[in-house]
Amino acid sequence: MNLGIRSKLFLVSLGLIAASVVAAGLYLSTALDRSLTERVRADLLVRAQLVARDASVTVAKAGDRRAWDALADELGKRSQARVTLVDRGGSVIGDSEVSLGDLATLESHAGRSEIKEAMARGEGVSVRHSSTLGERLMYVAVPFRRGSEIAGVARLATPLTHIQVAIAQLHQSLFVASLMALGLAVLMSTIAAHLVSRSVRRVTESARTMAAGNLGSRVRPAGSDEVATLGRALDQLAESLTTTLEQLRSEKDLLGRILTGMNEGVLVLGPDGRVVLVNPALREMLLLDAEAIGKPLLEVVRNAELKEILEGAAAGDAQDPIASEVELSGLKPRRLLVHAAPLRDEPRGTIAVFVDVTNLRRLESLRRDFVANVSHELRTPIAAASSAAETLRSALGAAGPGAAVQSVPDLEAARRFVDIAERNIDRLRQLVEDLLDLSRIEAHDFRLRPEPLDPGPFIDRVLESYRGRAGEKQIQLNATATSAGGVVADPRALERVLGNLVDNAIKYCPPGSKVNVSAERVQSRWLLAVEDTGEGIEPKHLPRLFERFYRVDAGRSRALGGTGLGLAIVKHLVEAAGGTVEVQSTVGRGTTFTVRLPAA
User: Fold this and answer.
1) Distance CA 579, CA 529 (A)
2) Which of 225, 258, 294, 480 has its CA 20 to 30 Å from the CA of residue 185?
């Protein structure tokens, strides 16, 4: 049952009044009974003392019940109370309310509390219901003496009927006052409920208007009571909601413009795997229409590989998104790079960003094919030029001191030119070989054949090929390797990796430097490091060091015969073997290349 404010205020007022009346009635009844009883006791005690004094000076003999009963009747009239005279033994010898003939039938009063208290303390008081008169009486007893001894006890009794009457009148007055207070409470609760409900109705109407979507509605209450405070809080809430909604609307518009203007496709899936959002770029990539929203992914894009990628992303970690390439067939074949990650906020789902790399992959394929074709085509003229240089050198070697000067005008210059030609032919041949190797690696035509290798002997075998060049430059080559297990790698690829790194170290280190090649197993991986004490590399060059044709010092690299492809080949071979390569360098102290490969 729903009660209004008026009913609640009325019930509260009624409850308060009822509780107040009951508490007041209990307290006043007890206090009035105690006060009136105390007054009656004091008055009756004074009269009992007067009766005891008269009993002490009477001339009646101890055994003369007639005289004592007559005295009790006379004293009862004068004291306006029931007077009972009891001897030392507790026998009633006179009673103003009992006839002389019935005195003998009265039981002994020696055990009455007021009698025992009077004999012991000089006065006694007791309030109880009298079985003789059938009323609630107060008894006051005082001993009287004959000479120096206690001859008996004079007891006065008076009914407490007037006290009960006074309490009843009090209850009646409280009842009337309660009725008057109840009427006043009804009036006051009605007025208060009307005033409060008017303010509450205004707040309620404003709240309903706001709930309906009109956040411009305001309560603007007057006063400082609780309802006014509630109204001001509601106005502040509406202001905050308006500001928040405006910000959300602005962010939504900005997000919509960003999604519309993106060249990358964006796909959002709900927790049930249905499409929630598709931006225009993805619609164009996949030739989707507006009906894709709300459909399962396989119904929109029929590609099992993409479905597996998105399901894996939904079950993965948002801090580590999945990146993979997917090739889609159909009317508009595409190769897409997909970055997918789960949405951890409610409602949960998956977000994927698609980058169209179709043209990029086609250009990469064209570049690889071009490089491979050009490299193959260059082999023939390089071989011819090399053969011609060798033939010319043989001819120059045959021209000794007795040869005709006319046949070779400047023999030393001719030999110098042949040296230049052979050196550049070798350099061109190395460049072509590096280009072919890099092209095969990028096209995944370079098939690795991993096998367990013992790092120590393998490193020694690689270094043997470079000790001659190192000795010419006075560079010391060292090798250190642990013997715990072996490294899993393709011997040709690993020899190419270590060879390129050692070759670079010898090539660019000044005379007197040291080059150390080490192998160490750390947990489940092998660390192969090539460390030199050369001049080092500036930090700005380190991020681009593994790019093809990138040179720290282009002039010096060309003078030393570098092709600019060695470190690019190292990186591709290491990554193809499931490892990583990194470089650390300090200018003036040296450089360290570290290769991490899986252990056997």
Assistant:
1) 13
2) 225
* 443 pLDDT above the threshold of 70: no
| H-type alpha helices, 262-303 | 280-286, 297-300
Does this chain's domain 5-165 share its CATH topology with 262-356? yes
User: Which has the closest alpha carbon to 173: 21, 34, 27?
Assistant: 21
What is the mean predicted confidence (pLDDT) over 265-269?
A: 86
**How is domain 5-165 classified at the CATH fold level?**
Beta-Lactamase (3.30.450)
Residue 517 burial (CB count, 10 A) = 25
Bigger pLDDT: 519 vs 418: 519
Q: Which one-letter amino acid corresponds to residue 55?
A: A
CB 545 within 8 A of CB 507: no
Backbone angles phi, psi at 426, to 5 degrees: -60, -40
Residue 249 phi/psi, 5-degree rounding, is -65, -40
The answer to whether residues 77 and 49 touch, using CB atoms and an 8 Å cutoff, is no
- What is d(CA 468, CA 464) in angstroms, rounded to the nearest whole number? 8
Q: Tell me what the mean pLDDT of segment 468-482 comes to.
A: 85
* pLDDT at position 370: 67
Domain ranges of the chain: 5-165, 219-261, 262-356, 361-442, 451-598
CATH for the stretch 262-356: 3.30.450.20
- Decide: 203 and 231 in contact? Cβ < 8 Å: yes
Q: What is the mean pLDDT of the chain?
A: 78
Residue whose structure tokens are 């004091």: 42
**CATH architecture for residues 451-598:** 2-Layer Sandwich (3.30)
Fold of 361-442: Helix Hairpins (1.10.287)
Q: Which residues contact 336 (CB under 8 A, 6 or more apart)?
A: 265, 285, 325, 326, 327, 328, 354, 355, 356, 357, 358
Indicate the DSSP class of residue 599: B
State the helix-helix crossing angle for 5-56 and 65-79, rounded to 10 degrees. 140
CA distance 414 to 388: 14
In sequence order, what are the residues at sequence separation of 6 or more whose Cβ sits closer than 8 angstroms to the Cβ of residue 62? 87, 146, 151
- Residue 466 contacts residue 477 (beta carbons within 8 Å): yes
Q: Kindly write down the DSSP assignment for every residue of 204-258, as one continuous string.
A: HHHHHHHHTT-TT------SSSHHHHHHHHHHHHHHHHHHHHHHHHHHHHHHHHH
Q: How far, in whole angstroms, is CA 108 from its chain's centroid?
A: 88
**DSSP structure class, residue 455:** H
pLDDT tier for residue 404 given thresholds of 50, 70 and 90:
very low
Residues 103, 132: Cα–Cα separation, whole Å = 13
Alpha-helix residue ranges (DSSP H) falling in 87-160: 113-121
Residue 354 · residue 283 · CB < 8 Å:
no
> What is the reported pLDDT for 405?
42
- Residues 544 and 566: their CA atoms lie apart, in Å, by 13
Structure tokens at 116: 């025992």
**Angle of helix 411-442 relative to helix 566-576, nearest 10 degrees?**
30
| 376 confidence band (pLDDT: 50, 70, 90) | low
Selection from 294, 299, 343, 292 nearest residue 321 by Cα: 343
Kindly state the average pLDDT of the residues 140-145.
89
Query: What SS3 string covers 515-562?
Result: EEEEEEEECCEEEEEEEECCCCCCHHHHHHCCCCCCCCCHHHHHHCCC
